[in-house]
Amino acid sequence: MAGDVRQWADDHRLAVTATAALVALNLAAWLVAAMAGFAFPLRLSTSMAAFNAGKLICSLFLARGVIQLMVDAVLWLVMLSIAEPWLGRVRTVVTALACAAGGVLAGLTLCAAAGWMFQDSLFVSRMRFALSPLVLPVGALMAASAFCSHLWRRRIRLVGYVAILVTLLYSGNPSGYCILAAALIGHAAGRVMAGPPAHVEAEWHWLRSTSFEARRIFAAIAVVLALGPVIAITSHNHAGPLSTIGLLMSPVSVDNGMLAKCLAGDTHGGCFLQFNLLRASMPGAVLRSLLPTAVTLVLAWGLYRGRRFAAICTVAINLFTVAIAVAYYLVVPLSFVPDGMASLLQHGAIVACVANVLPPLLFAVALLAAMKHFPIRIGWRRLVGGIGAIVLAWLACAAIYLIYGIAQPATFSPRATASSLLAELPGRFLPIGFLSHMKLSFVPRTPMASIMYQGVGLVFWIVVLAVAIHWMGDVSESNERARARAERLVETGGESMSFMTTWEGNSYWLSPTGRSAVAYRVLNGIALTCTGPFGDPAEWMDDLNGFAQHCAERSLSPVFYGVHREQRDALLEAGWNSIEVGSEMVVDPRGWKTTGKKWQDVRTAINKAKRDGVTDVQSTFLEASLDVREQIEDISEEWAQLKALPEMKFTLGGVEELRDPRVRLLYAVDADGRVLGVTSWLPTWREGRIVGWTLDFMRHRTDSPNGIMEFLIARMAERLRDEGEADPAHAVEFMSLSAAPLAGMNPDRDNAGEDGAPASEGTQVLQHALQIVADWMEPAYGFHSLFNFKRKFQPTEAPVYVCYPDPAALPQIGLAVVRAYVPSVTPAEVAGMLSTLRS
Questions:
Q1: Which GO MF terms does the UniProt record name (predicted)?
Q2: Which residues have CB under 8 Å from 37's CB, separation 6+?
Q3: Is the pLDDT of residue 430 over 60?
Q4: In the listed set 144, 168, 202, which residue is the last one of a domain according to the structure?
Q5: Going by DSSP bridges, is the β-strand pair 734-736/689-700 parallel, antiparallel, or unpaired?
Q6: How far is the C-alpha of 30 from the C-alpha of 711, rounded, in Å?
C-alpha cells in the first residue's frame, strides 16, 4: 500500500507539490498574521469601485479559513492529478495560469455587465468580494478533459459545470463567475490542443450510455444540487430560496428590542430580518434545515443503486424547488409591487427566477427521460410501511407540540394560544429557508419550551432520514426472501445460463419444497422466464408445471425462454409450442487443442498477442486494481456509445453484473498496463461444485489489435484445461460461449409436436416477429456476426428454445422479448417492427 502511494505521488509530482505549497503558504500567512496582530481571517476582499489588484491576486492563493483550505487543497489535488498526466507538468502550469488570468478578466467583466443590464451597477461596483484558489486549477482540468477518454470527459464536464453553476447560483459571489469563465476558457483551449474527438457521435450523444454510468452521473449531479444549502451557509452573498440559511455566517445578531416590538405587532420593515436571525440562531432549526439535505443525499445514493422510487422522489423534490422559486421571485412579489411584471423585470427578479428554476427543472426533466436506468422497485410492503412511519411520526410530533403549548402557554412569549400554535405548526417542520416571509407568533422562554419548539421538527426529519435509508437499502424487491433463497439455490444446481437468474430485475417462484426455483419477469401480461428451473435437478420437471400453475392463478401467460432440449421436450408433451431462438456454443476444455487448419485464426491471435507483449490476467472485478476497473468501465462506455441502440439487458450482463465476486474476469493488458479487452465468465454448479463456466461480458477497445477476443477465449480454455489436469477431481466439464440472442434460429427444426409436423400459422408469425427483432438489432449488436465468430472455436451447438402454451398470446410474447432485452424501446419503434407482420 505504501509503495503504491509513493508510486502515485511520483507520477503526480506537480499535483502533490502544488497542493503542499498551497497549504504551506496559507499556514505561513496565518502564522505571520497572528504574530503581527492582523485580524483573522485575512481581509482580502476588494470591490470594483475601490479595486485592489494586490488583494485580488493574494486571494487566488490564500483561503479564508481552515475548512475552506481543506476543501481547496483536496480539490487542487484532484484537479491537478487529473490534468497532469494528460497535459504534462509544464503545459498544466501554463494552462492553469493563462485560464485563471483570462477567467478573472472575463468573469469580472461578466459580473459588471450583468449589473449594468439589470440597472444594478452601483450595487455591483461597491460589493466586496474575494477570489478563490479554485480559479487556478479549473482551467487546466477542463483543458485536460479534451484528452481523456469519453467516459472521464463526460464525468468531468457534466459534474464540473453543474457544481460551478450551483455554487454560483447559491452564493452569487463574483468569484463564481471567474471560476466559470476559467473553466470555459480551459474547455476551449483543450479542444484546440487536442483537436476534435475521435468519435464525434460519442461526443454529442451523452444520453446513450450504460445504466451503470448513467446512474453514477445522475447521482453525482444530485449530490451537487443537494449541497446547495450547505454552500449558502459558507457564502457571503446569498441567492435562491434557501439563502436565509446563510445568516448563520452573518455578523449581524438579533436585536432583542426590535424583536420584542415585532412580536407585539409592530410591522417595521426589519421585522422579517429579526425573525430570520432568530430562527438561524436556534440549533434545532439549523439541524432541521440540514436534515432534508441529508435525505436528498440518501436519494442520490438510491439513484446510484438504480432505485426507481429514488428517481421519482428526486424529480418531485426538484419540481417542488422549482415551484418554491417561482413563488419566491414571482407570485409573492406580484402581490405587493406597484408596477407588476415591469417592476420585477426592472429589478432582475425575472432573471433571478429563471436562473434558480433552470437547474432543478432541467435535472428533473433529464431524470424523467432517463427513468429506464432506474428499474429496481421497492416492495409495496416496505413502501407502505415507510410512509406509515413518516405519517405517524408527523402526527405524534405535531400532537406533542400542540399539547405542550396548550398545557404550558406561559412558557412562550407572548403567551401561546391555540390559534397561534396552529399558525406556527408548519414552521416546526419546514427548513428555515422557506420561512423568510413568515411572521413569528411567539418565542420559547424556558429550556423545555425551547426543546419542544425546536425538537419536534428535528425528530420528524430524523424519522424521514431513517425511512429513506431503509428504502434505499440493498434488498428492495417485493420477493425479498425468495431472492435471497434463489441466490443460494443457484449454487446447488443449474444449467449453463442459470447464473443469469441472480441479476437484478428478476422475480422468483419457489417450489413447494423450497429446493428449486424459476426466475421470471412480468412484461405485458407475460411471465417470461430467464432460462429454466434451477436448484435441485430432481424437481425441474415438476417445476415446469408448478410455475405454469402459479402463472394461471395470477392471470399471467407463462413463457419459458432460453430452455434446453430436455425441458422443451417435456413441455411439448404437455401440449406447449416451441421455437428455437438460438444455438448455445459449448466447448469441452478437457480436450482443448488448437491444431489443424480450422484453428488457424485462433493460433494466429495467440501468437500475435505473445509477440506484442499482450498478457491475460484472471481476477474478479473487485480484486482488480482501481485503474483496471476504470479502464473496464471506459471500454464498456465506449462500446455502448457507439451503438445505435441502448445497452441490452435480460440475458446479457453489463458492468453491474461484473461486480459479483462469483464472476470470473479474464482481461488482456499490453506492456504499458492498458486493458485491451475483457471477458466475464459465469459459474455453473452441480451439487455445490462448479462444473462449467459461461461467457457473458465480451468487449474490447475500438483500437485494440485484431484477434484480442480470440486470444482471451482461447486462454480461458487453456486455463480451465490446465486447472483440470492439476486437480482432476474438480475439473470443469464445459466452457459455454453462450448463445447469441435471436441468432442461429432454425425454423425448419421448430414444430408443435414430436411427429415433426410443420409449424402452425401462429408459430410462423412469432418466428417472423422474432426474426424482425433480430434484424432490427443486428446493425447495432451484430448477433449474427457474433454467432459466426464463436464457430471459430469448433464448439458443439446446443439449441435453446422459447416455449409457450397459448398461441393467442404471440403478439404479447414478441413484445415481451423486445422489452426484456431493450427496456427503453419506444412504442413507436415496436409498432414499426410489428407492422411488417402484415407485409
A1: aminoacyltransferase activity
A2: none
A3: yes
A4: 202
A5: parallel
A6: 60
